Every structure is written in C-alpha cells, then in structure tokens.
Amino acid sequence: MDAHSRGRAEEVDPADQWVIDPRTGDYELRLDRSAAQQPSVTSPRRARGPLSSSLMPSRSARSGRSAKASAAASPKAPSPKVPSPAVPGPRRGDGPGGGRRGGRQAAGGSGGGGGRRKALVVVGGSLAFLLVGGSLAAYLYYDHLNGNIKTTDTLGAGRNGFQKDQPINILIIGTDKRTGDGNEGYGDSDSPGHADTTFLFHVSKDRTNATALSIPRDLITDIPTCPTKQTDGSTKNIPAQRGVRFNTSLGQEGRDPGCTMRTVQELTGIPVDHFLMADFNAVKTLSTAVGGVPVCLDKAVKDRDSKLNLTAGEHRLDGEQALAFVRTRHSFGNESDLDRIKTQQQFLSSMIREMKSKDTLSSPKKLIALAEAATKALSVDKGMGSISQLTALAGELKGINPKNITFTTLPVLDNPAERVKATVVINPSQADPLLQMIRGDVSLTAVEQKEKAAEAAAKSKQDALLQGNRAPAGDVRVSVSNGGGPQGSASTTLAWLQNSKGVERSSNVGNAPAKLDHTTLEYAPNQADQARALADMMGLPASALKAGSADAPPKTPMKLTLGADFKGAGISLTAPQQAPEGVQRVEADKAICAK
Fold first, then answer.
1. Which of 88, 168, 435, 569 makes a 20 to 30 Å CA pair with 56?
2. Are strands 505-511 and 477-482 parallel, antiparallel or unpaired?
3. Does the predicted model carry a pTM greater than 0.70?
4. Region 2-9: what's the mean pLDDT?
C-alpha cells in the first residue's frame, strides 16, 4: 500500500495495526503503536458454518484460562468485547433518503492461520478498488465472503487472467436492471437490463497509473456473435448485430457480460482480462458503507425523474441520494448521457479519495461493511470468482495513487444519419490516438518524475534499435501471419505491402500458431536494415522488433505476426505520447463541482 494511502501520519499501514498479543496469543487492533498499553479489540475471524451474529469464544477461554486470571495478567488493559459491526443492507425506501440502514451483524473471534490473515488483509480493498480505483486493508470472513460472490462463465470471452509484467484491463459494467428493494423507480420496466454505464479500467504494466475509459451507452457499434451459458448447462449462440446501440450488448436477446466483453474488445482493440458488474444496489450499499461520498454542486438541483433535490454547494451522499446523483440526466450540462458520464466520473473520483482517506483505512467497521456490501452487490467472471483470486489481483492494484488515475470518455460525434440526435458514433480523429495510447500503455496523467525518467531511458534504449540504415523496399523479405488481428488481416496486409509499398518479396502464411496481444517482427541481425524499413512502413514501435541471435541464410524472410493490437494495413501501431486536444478527462485526485 503506497504511502499516500497510509492510515497514520507516521505512515503506518492500517493492515499492520493488527498485532498479536504475546500474553494471550490473540490478534488485536492497535491504532496507536506508540502507547505502551492500549485497549485491545479482538480481530474477527472466519465464520464457522452458517453466518451467525454470536461471538466466538476467545483463545484463553478455549484453553481453560479463567477470566480472573486474564484480568490479573493485564489489570490496566482489559480487552473489551468484540464489536459486531453493522453491515448495511439494501435501502428499503422507508422515506426520503432511503430508509433503514440495518444489516446482519458479523461474527467475531480470535485465532486463525497466519498465512490466511496476510492474504485477507487486502481483499476488502480489492473489491472496492475494482469498482472505483481505491485500495483498502481489512480482516474478512473468508468463507462467508466467498459465498457472497456471484460469477458468470463467459465461455472464453477476454483473457480471464493477468500477468505481472503486462497491463491489466477490467471491464466495469453498471446495469440498469431493476432488482432489489426501492429500485422500482429506476431503469426500464420489464427489462433484463442494459450496459447502462461501462468503464474499461486499464492498469499500466508497472502498476503506477490507470485509465478508466467510459463507453457511451448510445454509441452505435457492432455486436459480435456471443456464446452464452444457459441455466441447463448448454451453450446458446446469440446472433451478431450491426449498427445498434452499445448498451444492447448486455441483457438484450439473452446476452451476458461476456458479450459486452467481446463487444468492447472488437470496438477498442484492447484485450479484456476480467469483468465486474454492478447494479443499482451496489451504488447504494457501497456509498453507505464508506460513510457517504462527498460531492459538490455548482447550482441547486431538483430533478423530477431521479428525485435528486439538493442545494448548491457541498453534500455527502449515500444510499438513494447517491444513486439519484449518478442516475440524473436532467440536472447538469446539456442533459445528455455524455454529461451524465462526467457526473459519474466525478462521483467515482470522490469515492476513490474517500476510500483512501484515514477515516476509512483506520476503521475496521467501515472496511468490513464495505467488503460485505461489495461481495453482495457485484458479479464477476469465474477468473475472479473467489476471495483468493481477488486477493491476487488486489496485490497488483493496491499501490496506485489517485493522482495517477484518469477518467476519460471514448470520443464521439452526433450520429449524422439522424435528424433528431439520439445516438453517437466514434470520432476517429480523437478516438484512434486515444485508443493507441491505452493499447501502448501510455498514461494520460502525470506520474512521478523518477518514473518518467525511467520510462524515457527505456524508450531511448528501444528507439536505438531503429537507428541505422534502411533497406530499399524491393529488398525487404517478410512472411506475414495473423496472430490476433481482424479476420483476413494477413492477406490485406500482404496486398498493401506489395501494391502500395513495393515490398514484392512478401508472402502470406495464414494464421499464426498462437494468439498474440501485440504485433511482432522477428528478424536476424543481418536483416536489421530490412526490419527498420518495414517498421517505418507499418508504424511499428521499437518494442515490436525481436532480434535473433544469429544471422539468417540468404533469401530467408523475416516473420511479421499481426497481434490483437493490429487495426489494419497502414494504421500505425506507434502510440502517441499525449492525448489529442479536446479529449475529456477527470483526474481522480481533484474535486470538481458538477455544473
């Protein structure tokens, strides 16, 4: 956990405040390590059997130690009873603001395995982080939280995994399905829900920064054929559709989150590792669990549809009010979905800051309530379907500072085919370079100066590969295979090289033996001048060039394998280092008033 998110001024990680008492063998929460004797709070442990609100006996009681002997061993620091933190449940709509906040109480106790304790410390943060970019530490009920998690088999959609030295891409889907008490006034009636709010959350390979790309729900796009798992275990293929709203990639025609993952991958060229889906209850329960989310309004709002009624200035919203704030379409900007996206980005940025705050990180009650709410309200793919898997992912994400998290929106234009503007289409002049930056793992926000220097040094070393002579196009020999690009990419690239670039000594060898995320060009040292020439033509970055160790025999072709980042012949794969002018963005560490 980075120092920015430490829970105390002296940079004490809240996870490290759970310490073992050598007198009793129990784990205790000590918020002030400098004090000689502090009242101890026995840590919660994994629930045994059905979830119960009863308290587990202490280790001393189980070993036969009397309460009197325990008191004598520590006359000045008696251990109080274990608190039973209330976990907020869904609002029941008992009145303005959302009604009751009651919930089941967590079981407590002491003891447990040390290895499991270390693993569970980051779980609460991982779940909340996946939704809003925060990072927490908490001691959680392992089996109980596992039982809360809902999973979907996406049947091969996405990569369903991650590598430590590669970026991580998580699709966060907010659905407008009207499930749960108090949600009857939202969403479309009798609808299975849509992909109402969608973020592609890209985490850099060095884990120093992240970009959250919003995809407008009314974007006109193509939805590919989607295999979906049915309740009886069979597989049903949902037919592809062309020229439809993006939000129909979920729920409609029986499509599941795997279909939304496939749609995003084809739309952006960015491979998706996992998905996380939230409904209306997630906004209500998570905002309540964190103690409310601060927002700022530039003007007073009274929205008849969302029931949002707030004065100008600062407010702290939870439950029904928080949901109304992110759902309103008639309160800010020009009342479009694009302006609602900006409001949602501001809300999530504020929630990040709240989760990073000392008040949250040093409160076991808040952390437990947050983890409970998150596991109940969120659905994930099978690759994230357990606490242990979420813990591994949390370890990759926990160190990102809010100042290096940027929200942006896929650039779009009004649909020129419509007289009454209701949908949008991609603006290629802005969207193409923005997507290239994300695919190239280029941050949209500032990073630490030393990190910039390290990146510049690495880039300089790579660029040195491109320094030197270029062979004439007629001397370039290359075989082209498709390892993840659009169907037919090898043949269209071959035709482009031969007819437009004069690379007549090129050939198409069909599909590559394995799928690749990135396009690569393999060459021998004595083919370096050919490789540089082809890199110039194709717009290949230095990182795409893979030099062999031995010279190649005469007339041996280089090997060009088109990866998932390949978008078409003549489209450069070299990522720009700055976002196009006019691209909308919200930085997570800055408070902005909604206008």
1. 88
2. parallel
3. no
4. 39
148-151 long-range contacts (CB < 8 A, ≥24 apart) are 148/372, 148/375, 148/376, 149/375, 149/378, 149/380, 149/385, 149/386, 149/387, 150/378, 150/379, 150/380, 151/379, 151/380, 151/381, 151/382, 151/384, 151/385
The two tokens of residue 362 are 């040093």
Distance CA 99, CA 91 (A): 6
CA dihedral 491, 493, 498, 501 (to 10 degrees): 170
- Would you say residue 501 has pLDDT above 90? yes
What's the CATH superfamily of 117-444? Answer: LCP protein (3.40.630.190)
Domain 462-562 has CATH 3.20.20: no
Return residue ranges of the chain for CATH 3.40.630.190. Answer: 117-444
Name the amino acid, one letter, at 561. Answer: T
Q: Which residues contact 466 (CB under 8 A, 6 or more apart)?
A: 532, 535, 542, 545
At residue 78, does pLDDT exceed 90?
Answer: no
Measured CA to CA, the distance from residue 294 to residue 76 in angstroms comes to 40
Burial 429-438 (b: 16+ CB within 10 A, else e): ebbbbbbbbb
Query: Which of 34, 10, 26, 13 is CA-nearest to residue 367?
Result: 13
SS3 label, residue 388: helix
